[in-house]
Amino acid sequence: MKQITSDRSIHEIELPLLSGQPSKLADYAGKVVLAVNVASKCGFTPQYAGLERLYKTYRDRGFTVLGFPSNQFMGQEPGTAKQIEEFCSLNYGVTFPLYTKLDVKGSRQHPLYTVLTESEDDSGKAGNVKWNFEKFLVGKDGRVVRRFRSRTVPEDPAVVSAIEELL
Known about the structure:
By secondary structure, this protein is of the alpha+beta class.
């Protein structure tokens, strides 16, 4: 596996869950995390199903998926926190943690995405998230190990093998 590691840890970041409850990403120290910017009205929205399957398959081994809704790509996440939560639960049975809507790029980029986007994808490109459902694989130490662009589905063999290597 080609490892593309960021020097900074996401464990230093705090942000609220979709429910509004405060949360510290330090709670995921020692776990492998797949951080994904998500949206309910996107062509990639069906990836929620694969993310949930990954979560259920590996959660007992120290893995989690974290979803970060963003409305920055053609307004594809316009809903309120309650609407997002209901949509994800009813349509895809999502049980992994979902966080409050945030900016993944631009002048109001959330500090989490400042850290995540320092990492390169397999082609060597770092920088802004280009679309919904970009995936950042984070090691147990909170540092980004691998970045997958939107077209890479959650259950792609490259994603699965990268997760298994880290577990």
